[in-house]
Amino acid sequence: MKEQLLEIIEECVKKKVTLDDGLLSTGLLDSIVAVDLILSIQAKLGIEIPITEAVDILSTVQTLVDYVEVNE
What we know:
Layout: H1 2-13, H2 31-45, H3 54-57, H4 61-71
Helix pairs in contact: 1-2, 1-4
């Protein structure tokens, strides 16, 4: 699951990422790409990310991986 999620993230941000990378704070994700990522995760993995929690969940690659692993 982690590898598939990393592929989805890299596909959306058009860049190689590591678990330590920030997403929102570094500018890898802007609001449009964040929505695209959320929708891709929902379509490909069947996991919904609540918009009200998106800022916290999308803060780093690791926080996103942790959320997906808990909610798979």
